[in-house]
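Residues and backbone
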Amino acid sequence: MDVGAAWDEFGRDFLAKTVFIGRSTHAMNRPTFFLVGAAKCGTTALYECLRQHPGIFMPHSEDPARYWLHKEPFHFCGDLGIAEWLRVVNDDDYLKLFEEAPEGAVCGTATAWKIYSKEAPARIKEFEPNAKIVIMLRPPVTWMRSWHHDLLRYAYEDKVSFGEALAMEEDRKEGKNLPRRPAFAGCLQYREAARFSEQVERYYQVFGRENVFVGLREDFEKEPQTFLKGLLNFLGVDSSVELEVSRENDSPTLRGTHHFDLAVGRVMDRMPGGKGLKKFFHKSLEAKYRRFTDKIFAPMSDKKIDSILEEELLEEFEPEVAKLGKLLGRDLSHWNEPRFPRSEHDHDHHHH
């Protein structure tokens, strides 16, 4: 090889490396898979599980105040109307979440509310044309009750009775009888959010079936290693890695004073010296306070459904379950069976 040709080759190589460096590190580390939901279907457990894989990187923060912003940056779903302080708005800030990814790692993100966004699929496709999509699902009726329980947990819902919350859907669509701080536009439209077939179809249309992995929470719980092997193969990473599975973000029975306790906690957080006061209360008085209030107040939410309401909803959602089963090529008829014993408390709350 003559000197000129060698110099040309060196120049091309140098230029390629310089351009590569100039694109900055986080241009390399882009998310290529997106766990988009649905909430309360094992998405947090799956996120914590996938993070253990040496070939996968998902943004994470040990700081409780920043945990959700790293795990669920709520990017690409502006139509949900989520407050800006709760989400990562621009692409540069979003890409910074992936700066620490090791070289060659497959990057991903988990935003369980993204599935409810109508604009998200097209925006993800524009950002990453070869994106792989992961969706987790469970039976719509149990999902609705679990979602209602979770919204109560964070005070995004103020109707303690699940039946009453469902009866309010039409009013709320028109902006009436809304709680002071709902999570996002449409979060109280339980039936609409539980029509999973529409949401899956949206992703199938934009990305093609071969790029969408639809997992069922029941499979993940019954045969976690088989489920994970299938998912890791889909993501194109080593599927022989054993990952540890644990339940995450599980919400216990909510106490009768739950919303009052939340409000007091928030006020104390804003007060000078309030955090110290909270610690003192937790250490010395909390047990007495709980014993006293539990005697007086019935639990706010025990995660069960009134059996009559459950039967009505199962009948209403039978066509949806059939449609989803057909779409996924699976028999989901067992989703039409009642799952809950009668709730002791549902009737108590109907008159509130």
User: Anything to note?
Assistant: The longest strand covers residues 31-37.
